[in-house]
Prior knowledge:
Layout: H1 2-18, H2 30-47, H3 50-79
Amino acid sequence: MITNGILLVFQGIINILLSPLSLIxxxxxxxxxxxxxxxxxxxxxxxxxxxxxTPLIIIVIALFVFRIIMSIIKLILxxxxxx
Length: 83
């Protein structure tokens, strides 16, 4: 409860300090930059042999997902009290 109150005070101070920034509106024209991104992706797709790299990318992603799932399972089992 004490930490919650301290965080609420900090949140109020930050909200007051950042409230003038809510008037600023930043817009980005994605249609102008889309052709540049599209051309870059075409060059990358042309240079790299995707048929050879795709299995490696899938294996790396699968290993990361497996490690994340195992970490979550371990975290949950550490919180469950076994007597």
